[in-house]
Amino acid sequence: MGTIHVQSNSLDTASTEYTNAMLKANSYLTRKGDNERTTIGGRDAVRMFVMGTSNRSNREENVIVYNVLLRDGTLLYLNMVVPAADLVTYQNCFETILRSIELHDQ
Asked: Model's pTM, two decimal places?
């Protein structure tokens, strides 16, 4: 979880910018499908899935990436990483985390 300054004021464009940088830095990951619309803290958000075999554990992992464009133009990102075999086990935990997020940027 973190924030980065992005060049775009479009959630889709900023999310693509972030995802491309993440995939470049983690070349073992590949994108799975298209962006999906969702909400976080009452705001429009984008969810995307990436997957690959971890260089460290040699196990397949899934990364669920959530992006929200904040009012000051920064992008909030949440990367939820889980071994592929355990995704169902962690799904409820991830949903609880997402529901607990409150955004207070002005």
From this structure: 0.90
Q: In sequence order, what are the residues at sequence separation of 6 or more whose Cβ sits closer than 8 angstroms to the Cβ of residue 3?
A: 70, 74, 75, 76, 77
Domains detected in the chain: 2-100 (3.40.1000.10)
Question: Within its chain, how far is the Cα of 13 from the centroid?
Answer: 14
Helix (H) or strand (E) holding 91: helix 87-100
Q: Tell me the per-residue pLDDT of 43-99, one tens digit each, with 9 for 90 and over.
A: 999 999 999 998 888 999 999 999 999 999 899 999 999 999 999 999 999 999 999
